[in-house]
Specification:
The protein has 143 residues and is mainly α. It is 68% helix and 0% strand. It is globular. It starts with a helix and ends with a helix. Pfam families: DUF6691.
């Protein structure tokens, strides 16, 4: 049942990403271009996602457990730490450079673009390298 619900959630996210055109890097880059031809439409997509998440988070506050899992998996940190901030900067730089982040990139694979495939392969390589050399170890060596 968990796999089926995860599949439906992923499918719903993919459809939402496609309908909002977040799989189009040009649209994302236009949103990030504040000094040029700015496209504010993705701010509405983000606001809608935040609204849905906030309502869901509010609804689970007093629940003892999810319907199809043993426990909720909520963040443990109450304030940002150095690895989170560095990771956010790396994510933002990548998003700003190419107009993709992981979800939209995977959804955009269906379009058959060689550039998108290259991005996803590079992203998988990055995940592999991050598991081999965790950011926390690299940061501790730099400190």
């Amino acid at each position: 049942m968990q796999i089926f619900i995860a599949f439906l959630a992923g499918l719903l996210m993919s459809v939402g990403i496609a309908v909002s055109k977040m799989i189009d890097p040009a649209k994302v880059l236009a949103f990030l271009d504040l000094s040029g031809n700015w496209d504010p439409s993705l701010a509405l997509v983000m606001a809608g996602a935040l609204a849905v998440y906030s309502i869901g988070f509010w609804l689970i506050r007093h629940k003892p457990a999810p319907v199809v899992a043993e426990k909720f998996q909520l963040p443990l940190l109450s304030k940002p730490d150095k690895p989170l901030l560095i990771g956010a900067v790396i994510f933002g730089l990548g998003w700003g450079l190419v107009g993709y982040c992981p979800g939209p990139a995977i959804s955009a694979l269906s379009a058959g673009s060689v550039g998108t495939l290259g991005f996803v392969l590079a992203m998988i390589a990055g995940w592999y390298l991050a598991r081999r050399w965790p950011l926390t170890k690299i940061i501790s060596r730099l400190s």
